[in-house]
Amino acid sequence: MVTREDNDVMTRVDAASPGGQLLRRYWQPGAAASELTDEKPIKAVKVLGEKLVVYRDTSGNYGLVGEQCPHRSASLAYGRVDAEGIRCPYHGWKFNGAGRCIEQPAEPKNSNYKDEIEHPGYPVQKLGGMLFAYMGPGEAPALPRWDVLAWEHGRRWIVKQDLLACNWLQCMENSVDPSHLYWLHGATAHLGKMGEYDEKHDFIPFEHGIMKRRTTGVSGGGQGEVDQHPLLFPNILRHVLKTKNVKDGKVRHNLQFRLPVDDTHTQVYVVFFEPSDTERTGADATVSMEHLAMRDAEGNYRLDQVLIQDAMAWETQGPVMDRSREHLGTGDKGIVIFRKMLREQIEQVRRGAAPLGCVPKEKERPLIELDVINERIGVGVHKRVA
After folding, report:
1. Which of 333, 324, 364 is nearest to 139 (CA)?
2. DSSP-assigned states of every residue in 222-277
3. What is the mean pLDDT of residues 70-79?
4. Biggest alpha carbon distance in the chain?
5. CB contact at 8 A, 238 and 151
C-alpha cells in the first residue's frame, strides 16, 4: 500500500522535493523548436514547477532562463533577443543562456554590479525537432539519442496535446499497465478480432527503464502475438503503430514525452517518425508541429482517438491521484515494478549517485535503437524460446 507520504515523494516535482531532484537529472523537453520563430523567438514555459522562458537568439543559439527578471520582476517573455542573449523589456538588463547578467544599461560603465546577479539559466540542446533542457546540478549527462529522434531515413513531425490537468506519474503508470488496452482502446488499437480478454504480460527492467511485453491469444496453447515496447525512465514511452484507412498502412514509430509542468499539470509531446525510401529528415532539423485538441466544441473528450482515451483516464483520476485509496491486483504488476524503480532511483540521487540511464557526455551513443515489436502489425518478430 502507498501511504500519502509516499505518494507525495513520488509525485512532487519542485526543486525542493526528492522526486523533483530525480527528474532534474534527466534532459526534459522544454518546447518544440518550431514553437520559436523569427517573429516570436521567445516563449514562456513552465517546467518542473519553474516559470521560465525559452528563446532563440539572432545567432541561432537556444537558451532557457527564469521568466522574472531579477531586477524588478518584469517578464522576460516580452523581452527581445540579440546575438548574445535575451534583454528585459523593462530596463534592458541582458542575460546570456547561462543566466549570467551581461549588461545593465542604467549602471555606470565601470560597475561590476552585473557580476553579482544570479539568475536561473539552463543548457539547451536541439534533437529530433525538440528542445531539451537540463535543470539539474553539475555537468549535464549525455542527451540520449533515441532512435525516433536520431533516425534520418524518413519523415519526422511532432504532435503537442492540450495541457493535461493531472500529475505526470498518472501518465507514466499507464505505460506499464497493459491490461487497460483491451478495455480502454478496443478496436482503435489494432486488437483485430480478439473477442475476449486473453493476454499474458511480462515486465523486464533494463538499462533504460522497463520493457513491457504483451502476448495476446495465448489461452489456446499457441504462441500468440507479441507487442513489446519500453517505458524509458522516468517519463517517456516508446511506441509503434500502423495507420488505418490507408492502402498498405504506414508504420509510425513514436516517442511520447510526458513533461511534468508542475504537480498538477503535464504537457505531452509526441514525436513521430515514419520510415520512407524517398524522404529524409536530419536529426538536427526543425520539424512541423500539430496541435491535438482533447475536447470537442461541447467540451467532451474526443474518445475516438487513442491518445485522448488515455488522457480521459488520467485526468479523471484527479489532479494528483490519491494512491492510498487504490486496490491493486495481479494485473497491476507493472505499476508495482515501476514504483519500486522510481523509489530506488530517488534514493540513488539522495546518495549522490547518478540515476538509471544517466551517463557522462563522453559516453554518448550516436544512436540508441530500441527493440520494439508488434507482430500484429508486422513490426519485428519476438525470438521465442523452444
Report:
1. 364
2. S--EEEEEEEETTTEEEEEEE-SSSTT--EEEEEEEEEEEETTEEEEEEEEEEE-S
3. 98
4. 83
5. no
pLDDT beyond 80 at 245: no
Q: Tell me: do 101 and 167 sit in the same domain.
A: no
At 348, is the secondary structure helix, strand, or coil? helix
Q: Where are the alpha helices (DSSP H) in the chain?
A: 4-11, 18-23, 147-150, 168-174, 180, 306-315, 333-350
Lookup result for grid cell 533542457: 133
Answer with the one of 95, 111, 133 that is the final residue of a domain. Answer: 133
Asked if residues 167 and 264 have their Cβ atoms less than 8 Å apart, the reply is yes
Question: 300, exposed or middle or buried, with CB in 10 Å at 0-12, 13-18, 19+?
Answer: exposed
Query: How many residues are listed for the chain in this entry?
Result: 386
Cell of 209: 527503464
Domain region containing 232: 147-377
pLDDT at 46 over 70: yes
Q: Are 347 and 211 found together in one domain?
A: yes
The model's pTM is: 0.95
CA 332 to chain centre: 23
For residue 307, the domain's CATH number is 3.90.380
**pLDDT for 222 beyond 80:** no
The predicted pLDDT at position 320 comes to 98
Cβ count near 96 (within 10 Å): 18
- With a pLDDT cut of 90, the percent of the chain lying above it is 88
Q: Any idea which residue has 523452444 for its cell? A: 386
75 exposure class (CB count in 10 Å sphere: 0-12, 13-18, 19+)? middle
